[in-house]
Design goal:
- This protein is mainly alpha-helical and about 260 residues long.
- It has 10 helices and 2 strands; from the N terminus they run αααααααααβαβ.
- Helix 2 (about 35-50) runs antiparallel to helix 3 (about 55-75).
- The longest helix has 25 residues, at about 85-105.
- It is globular and about 55 Å long.
Length: about 260
């Protein structure tokens, strides 16, 4: 696995990190929808690209503004209360997120080793874990929820809780950026990429096996969940009113 790049390593054009920031903000606005799976994987990679290839202060400010605006817009349809409360909640989260990316920029930077790819996943997972303690909203907003429609991946939660899945998603972002930053090293990045691919493959294999076993246990049971505001995306498919506050779902015994 390659080490730090030479100081003369080729940098991306100046505009590219800003395009990545805008694209990441666009993906962030989709986190509260049925299309949250891909944003859950790529949003962090784009934000990290912006942070790594801009000055620390610029990166912090850009991420602070982008996350506040995008998360505030995303919160409007689901967050109970006023517009001010939705954007106020977004601002608080944005300060934390931008701060974690700033720490990565200062401690790891765009020329770090493969071991450095573990810093941001560990930091983000720790932030989500500790912020959920004593929080009246609990784990609402945790990145792992973006993969709710990927059962084979969600099975990891049965072993690690939500935090293992959050770690896996953010680690993808850091490994993708690490591979790009060390692209001049050619095939020397392959062992690092293979490590992540191996872990992901093991997670998917475990999930597939668990689902195969659970699929033969019991019949689906109709249950209900309570929404706080807005409409439930699954209502149209279920035939229930779009504004229902007690909305149905289906649960199979033995499966997560």
């Amino acid at each position: 696995m390659s080490g730090p790049l030479e100081q003369g390593a080729r940098r991306p054009p100046v505009l590219v990190p800003w395009l990545a920031l805008g694209a990441g903000a666009g993906l962030l606005m989709g986190l509260n929808t049925d299309q949250a799976v891909l944003p859950g994987w790529w949003m962090g990679a784009l934000f990290l690209f912006f942070s790594r290839w801009t000055r620390p202060g610029v990166g912090f400010g850009g991420l602070l503004v982008a996350n506040t605006v995008a998360a505030g817009v995303a919160n409007l349809g689901v967050f109970p209360g006023s517009v001010e409360s939705a954007f106020g909640m977004a601002l608080g989260g944005a300060v934390v997120v931008a701060g974690v990316y700033l720490a990565d920029r200062l401690l790891v930077g765009p020329r770090g080793s493969f071991v450095g790819t573990l810093f941001l996943p560990a930091a983000m997972t720790g932030v989500e874990f500790f912020s959920s303690r004593g929080n009246p909203f609990g784990t609402w907003g945790v990145l792992a929820y973006t993969q709710a429609q990927v059962p084979v991946l969600v099975q990891l939660v049965s072993v690690t809780g939500l935090w293992g899945l959050t770690f896996l998603l953010v680690w993808f972002a850091t490994v993708a950026n690490w591979a790009f930053e060390h692209r001049a090293a050619g095939r020397r990045v392959l062992p690092g990429v293979a490590v992540y691919a191996g872990v992901l493959g093991a997670v998917l294999g475990f999930g597939a096996l668990r689902l195969a076993v659970a699929g033969s246990v019991g019949a689906p049971v109709r249950v209900a969940g309570i929404t706080v505001a807005g409409s439930w995306p699954g209502a149209a498919r279920s035939g229930w009113p779009g504004s229902c506050r007690v909305c149905p779902s289906t649960w199979s015994p033995g499966a997560s």
